[in-house]
Amino acid sequence: MKAIIFGPPGSGKGTYASRLSRAFGVAHISTGDLLRDEIKNKTSMGREVESCTTRGELVPDDRIIGFLANRISQPYCAKGFILDGFPRTIPQAEALETITSPSVVVNLCVPDTVIIERLSTRLTCRNCGAIYNKRFQPRPKVEGICDVCNGNLYKRDDDEPEVVRERLDFYRKMTEPLLSYYEVRDLVKNISCKKTNVRAETVVEQIVKILNVEIMNTKKSSDKH
Ligand code: AP5
Ligand code: MG
Fold first, then answer.
1. What is the Cα–Cα distance from 71 to 31, expressed in whole angstroms?
2. Residue whose CA is closest, atom 52 of ligand 1?
3. Test site for ligand 1: of 11, 128, 131, 158, most ligand atoms within 8 A of the Cβ
4. What would the mean pLDDT of 109-132 be, rounded to a whole number?
5. Per residue in 81-116, pLDDT tens?
6. Ligand 2 centre and the CA of 141: distance in Å?
7. Mean pLDDT of the chain
8. Which domains does the chain have, with CATH numbers?
């Protein structure tokens, strides 16, 4: 499986991709999570991109493409992967094609009103990156503590309302146009999530069905050849 989970900030990419990667036993590659690790570890990449991510701007293509290429070629991606937050521009999509061709793009259609509500109350584990919400499911069992690793939960710097607006702006201008790039290749499957009270598991079930069909189709076409 070579899947892309596509959608605006706060549409649920990380929440779904982490569950799907466990369900299908494939790698979850979130460029946002990887960049936050670089920043946490104060690497040279981390120092370079910190101001960009805090302002909600995109990291330059030439920096992020090499960074992603390095991850995707590692053994843990050999059985397949789910990309979350990459590609985000046409040059990134073209660069990905030179490494490997994605087989499906799951596009999360979520209105801005839902996104703004969710991101104002999102909590993230500082240790393992697990995602929670103060108001909506999934909520942590113990306030402020990660269910998975007991790490402390925090509010991401880029979840401040003015930064969320900036990120949505970048998404509309730079990332959404990518949908046509994948639509002409017949790879896009839309998932609509218009309400705040839908449980993540319900949406995951819908995506699992899409991915199972994609796996069957890939198998059929490889059996033919
Ligand atoms: P990144 O971390 O990828 O941020 P993003 O794309 O803006 O998306 P988010 O992580 O904010 O949201 P999400 O869709 O994962 O939603 P989540 O599952 O958390 O990137 C951060 C920055 O890194 C970028 O701004 C940029 O600077 C840089 N960057 C990264 N990749 C780059 C690239 N390729 N090129 C250039 N720069 C790059 O869910 C949101 C909330 O909703 C959670 O609280 C969740 O619990 C809650 N929720 C409630 N109900 C549901 C439900 N039913 N389903 C899912 N979630 C729900
Ligand atoms: Mg995310």
1. 10
2. 200
3. 131
4. 96
5. 999 999 999 999 999 999 999 999 999 999 999 999
6. 21
7. 95
8. 2-224 (3.40.50.300)
